[in-house]
Every structure is written in structure tokens, then in C-alpha cells.
């Protein structure tokens, strides 16, 4: 406190303009520090999409053996977001820039990456989550079709993508390759359909986050329909790209039924 009073008494002897100038110096320094200091946020933007019915970097995303596989038309595109790395420097300027842009989002770093883990550990975690998602997607799809996993082998391969959010689209891709719409047609109806959502072995669809950015990635890559976990309808409708129809889902069965109804033009198709 004496040190602080010493500065105040010194300022009291200055003329008003000089006093203001001297006071401004620590304020400017504080603002400069705030602008350039690292903040606990990640910047995210629409990422790549991949057609699970096709190839990714030269390899089929879904390979099935042990049973007859049907040809498909249309696309089922899983969607991603791209976020700054866990060790990236994000400052106030970045946050303010992202806050006012529709093609970027500011997200708490802990909501993007596990807290306290290094880059290598996070990469391993995301890879493991992807493997678990693939296993659950395969089990959910084969169970939906009444097939036994012991008789059919499914291999899923998607380069440079981690996390569990492609689960729903993996399952739909397997269903389309094996059964289509159940009556000889394609599950997609020839459309470019995109979406996101985790899935468990029982076929339950879970929320993933970042859906507003994923809808932009989907529309950019030609999708006209977007499957979204029902709990994230409100987020998905935020600045929804023109020409993109939202279909909320809670289960694999519900997603299949909605796509069949859309493809055949029969029955009701839910909306957000």
C-alpha cells in the first residue's frame, strides 16, 4: 500500500494532461497484455467431409466381406470441424475475430480437448475414440439388419480423423451397402446426405458439438440433407445454410426410417 500511495501522491503534483498521459501508460500496457496473452480457447471452423460410401485418400471407407455387397448411388458424408491445436496460442484478438464471424467459432479448449493432456496423448485418445466408434457402428448396423457379426467382416478406414462423431454415418453406410432402403433402392435416394452423431452398439445416437460449423461443411460439399442428433437441433439451426434440410435423429432405426420415407416420398419426415 505505501508503494501505491507514493505513485498517487506523485501524480497529484502533475498537471492534468500529464497526469492522464502517465495514467494511460499502465492501462495501455494492461490492454496490450490482455490482447496478446494466451487464452483457454480453441478456434474452430468447418472441416473436411468424407463420403463413407466411397473412398478417402484412395482407400474404401467401408469394406465388407462374407456377404453380398450392393452397389450404391448418392453419398453419405460424415462431417468434421477443424480446431486449433491444444498447444496453439489463442489471444484476445483471435477470440474477438472469431466471435463476429459466421465461418468460425470460439470454443472452450476443455470442450475440444481432454484437460491436462499433451498433444501426443490427445491424438492417441482421439484415435481410440474413433476405433470404439467404428466397432459400435458395425455392431449397431449388423444388429439392425439382423446379421451376425461372426459371419460378416466389416473394416472401416478414415484417414486423419479422430473422435466418435462419425458413428452414425458409418452405421448408415453399412446398412446402405448391405440392404439399401430394404426394397432394392438406395438409402440415400441418390442424394448427397450428410450428418453427424455418435452411436452406441444398441443404435442410440448421441450429441457431438460443433454442428453449426458441420452444416456449413456439409452444404459446401453438396449436401441437401443433414442428419443431426435431436438434442442439437437448436444449434444446427443457427445460421443454417440455405438449401440444407435438417432431419433430427435419436436412433439408427429412426434415421433409416426417415431416409426411406424421404427416398420414397411416403410417410412423415421429422424436422427440427
How are strands sequenced across the largest beta sheet?
A: 6-1-5-8-11-12
How far is it from the N-terminal to the C-terminal residue, by CA? 59 Å
Helix fraction by DSSP (H/I, runs of at least 4):
40-55%
CATH architecture type of the largest domain: 2-Layer Sandwich
Bulk shape: globular
Strand content: 15-25%
Q: What is CATH's topology name of the largest domain?
A: Ribosomal Protein S5, domain 2
Structural domain tally: 2
**What is the structural class?**
alpha/beta
GO molecular function: ATP-dependent peptidase activity; serine-type endopeptidase activity
Protein name: Lon proteolytic domain-containing protein
InterPro entries: Lon_proteolytic, Ribosomal_Su5_D2-typ_SF, Ribsml_uS5_D2-typ_fold_subgr
What does this structure look like?
The chain has 272 residues and is of the alpha/beta class. The protein has two domains: 2-36, no CATH class; 46-82 and 116-264, Ribosomal Protein S5, domain 2 (2-Layer Sandwich). The chain contains nine helices and twelve strands. It has a six-stranded mixed sheet. Strands 2-3 form a two-stranded antiparallel ribbon. Strand 2 (55-56) and strand 3 form a beta hairpin. Helix 5 packs parallel to helix 6 (167-178). The longest helix is centred in the middle third of the chain and has 27 residues, at 119-145. The chain is globular. The N and C termini lie far apart (59 Å). The model is unreliable at 1-37 (pLDDT under 50).
Amino acid at each position: 500500500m505505501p508503494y501505491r500511495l507514493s505513485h498517487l501522491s506523485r501524480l497529484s503534483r502533475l498537471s492534468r494532461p500529464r497526469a492522464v498521459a502517465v495514467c494511460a501508460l499502465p492501462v495501455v500496457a494492461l490492454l496490450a497484455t490482455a490482447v496478446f496473452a494466451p487464452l483457454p480457447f480453441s478456434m474452430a471452423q468447418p472441416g473436411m467431409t468424407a463420403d463413407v460410401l466411397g473412398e478417402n485418400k484412395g482407400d474404401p471407407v467401408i469394406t465388407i466381406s462374407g456377404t453380398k455387397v450392393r452397389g450404391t448411388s448418392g453419398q453419405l458424408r460424415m462431417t468434421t470441424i477443424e480446431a486449433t491445436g491444444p498447444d496453439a496460442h489463442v489471444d484476445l484478438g483471435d477470440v474477438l475475430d472469431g466471435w463476429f464471424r459466421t465461418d468460425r467459432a470460439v470454443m472452450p479448449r476443455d470442450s475440444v480437448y481432454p484437460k491436462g493432456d499433451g498433444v501426443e496423448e490427445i491424438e492417441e485418445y482421439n484415435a481410440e475414440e474413433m476405433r470404439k466408434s467404428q466397432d459400435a457402428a458395425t455392431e449397431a448396423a449388423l444388429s439392425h439388419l439382423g446379421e451376425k457379426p461372426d459371419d460378416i467382416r466389416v473394416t472401416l478406414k478414415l484417414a486423419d480423423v479422430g473422435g466418435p462423431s462419425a458413428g452414425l454415418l458409418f452405421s448408415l453406410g453399412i446398412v446402405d451397402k448391405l440392404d439399401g432402403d430394404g426394397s432394392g433402392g438406395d438409402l440415400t435416394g441418390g442424394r448427397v446426405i450428410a450428418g453427424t452423431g455418435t452411436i452406441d452398439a444398441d443404435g442410440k445416437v448421441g450429441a457431438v458439438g460443433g454442428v453449426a460449423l458441420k452444416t456449413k461443411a456439409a452444404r459446401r460439399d453438396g449436401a441437401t440433407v443433414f442428419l443431426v442428433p435431436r438434442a442439437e437441433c437448436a444449434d444446427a439451426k443457427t445460421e443454417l445454410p440455405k438449401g440444407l434440410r435438417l432431419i433430427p435423429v435419436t436412433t439408427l432405426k429412426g434415421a433409416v426410417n426417415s431416409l426411406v420415407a424421404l427416398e420414397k416420398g411416403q410417410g412423415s419426415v421429422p424436422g427440427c
